[in-house]
Amino acid sequence: MQKHYDIIVAGGGCAGFTAAVQAGRLGKRVLLVEKNGMPGGILTVGGNNEIAQFWAHQKQLIAGIGWEFCKRLEAIGGAEIPDMTQVYPKHWMYGIHVNIPLAAYMMDEMLLEAGVNLCYEQTLCAVQTEADGDRNRIAGVTITSKSGLIDLTADTYIDCTGDGDLSVFAGAQYECGTPDEEGLSLQPGSVRYFLNGSKVSDEENKRIHAVLNAAIADGSLKAPDTKRASYNQLIYCKGNNINHISRFNGADSEEKTAANIEGRRCAARIFQALRRAGITPDMEMICPETAARETRRILCDGYITAEDYVAARVYPDGICHSYYPIDLHRDGMGGIQQIFLNNGETPSIPLSAMTVKGISNLYAAGRCASGDRLANSAYRVKASCMAMGQVCGAAASLAVDENSGRTRGIDFGKLRQILEENGAILPPIENTN
Question: Which member of 18, 38, 282, 409 lies 3.0 to 4.6 Å from 65 by CB, making a disulfide possible if both were Cys?
Fold first, then answer.
């Protein structure tokens, strides 16, 4: 394995995928390090195979590499893209449903076409830093491999781990949830299991639902296991995004292990409750982890507040769009706190919210980008992560070319030009004159 790269991207989810492809297409020597055996993160390994939201107000707001991925996937029968010009009653109806195996395949192909070096099933485990003026600089990282530990270096790094592992290991400051009387309040996660079957009549659906409610009443099934969905709803969702696994921090190894165990217990409880209702459940597969909605938010030079997000603030360094309502899931059956965007309002993400504070050669893209909990609950979604990843791939390439890998001081106008040339849709920027 080559030991030095222009750019190392940690994490191969939606943000890391687009970051690596963009940097590779710009001719950079790129290494993508991913803990799982395939790319895609929550989209593939996590089983939540819906991507939202590229369009709003009957116009496209996010394009570029993420949209190219969806269109290429659609061309081989691996994506269902709704007619985005229509007015749908629910925001989630603008989501793109993808086939999980084909999505991972297409990400592989696009990464390899871009010349990206891939390290699957290899985990970032240590970061070395050194002084760089009034900041620190990442001097190297250590990853695990089948051959043991490997030390690597790069000019610039991009943290797309979701949990902000690279940033935290490098000494970055972060926020994580809200302390409460029970410990730490974080959005609950969900585990994807694959439940197959056919919808039943309304009468039969009511009968099965009564049995599920009886199981909840006697404690053999927990209400958050199904969020009190009916059998037909469970079949429609096929086990996707239909449960809450609460009170765990996915950035803590012990708590993540406990959450994964509880996720499998959740699926087992559902299986047994359906058998009790006389159903022979077809549930042969479950994803390997309970997917977290919220962990660490890395503190960057900029910070996105919910007020700024909902108001669609125009930033002097606005660099990509995000579009999704505030969507903070509460523990158990606590529901979801949602704040919907006004018609015509389009939030954006500033580059400074991805430029990690105190570290001179590190960007953070995706779920771990800088903002408060409510704003993060909106911009954490996959299309927004793809937009942020592409931005950081282009910005890191400029940092390598212009600035010895340092993230601050790159030509912002040139960055916008590169992104436009690569299909991205850019937000307006604040006129500071």
Answer: 18
Question: For residues 282 and 284, what is the distance between their CA atoms, to the nearest angstrom?
Answer: 6
Whether residue 432 has pLDDT greater than 70: no
Q: What would the pLDDT profile of 271-320 be if each residue is shown by its tens digit?
A: 999 999 999 999 999 999 999 999 999 999 999 999 999 999 999 999 99
Q: Which helix (H) or strand (E) holds 17?
A: helix 14-25
312 Rama sector, left if φ>0, alpha if ψ -120 to 50, beta otherwise: left
- The beta strand positions in 2-106, using DSSP E, are 4-10, 30-34, 50-51, 55-56, 59-60, 79-80, 96-98
Residue 417's nearest CA partner among 384, 389, 391, 387 is: 391
Per-residue pLDDT, averaged over 191-203, amounts to: 97
Polymer length of the chain? 433
Residue 431 has pLDDT above 80, yes or no: no
* Under 8 Å between Cβ of 356 and 362: yes
**Of 396, 371, 397, residue with least CA distance to 384:** 371
Read off the tokens for 209.
Answer: 């639902």
8 Å CB contact between 22 and 394: yes
Q: How far apart are CA 129 and CA 319, in angstroms?
A: 28
CB 388 within 8 A of CB 365: yes
Collapsed DSSP state (helix, strand, coil) of residue 392: helix
| 22 neighbors 363 (Cβ within 8 angstroms) | no
pLDDT tens digits, 223-245? 999 999 999 999 999 999 999 99
HSE-up of 14 (CA within 13 Å, CB side)? 30
- Residue given tokens 């799982």 in the structure block: 36
Which SS3 state, helix, strand or coil, does residue 15 take?
Answer: helix
Nearby residues of 354 by Cβ (< 8 Å), 6 or more positions away: 300, 363, 364, 365, 369, 370, 388, 391, 392, 395
Strand, coil or helix: what is 185?
A: strand
- What is the DSSP secondary structure assignment for residue 340, as one 8-state letter? P
Indicate the pTM of the whole model.
0.97
Per-residue burial over 382-395, b if 16 or more Cβ lie within 10 Å, else e, is bbbbbbbbbbbbbb
Strand stretches in 91-123, DSSP E: 96-98, 117-120
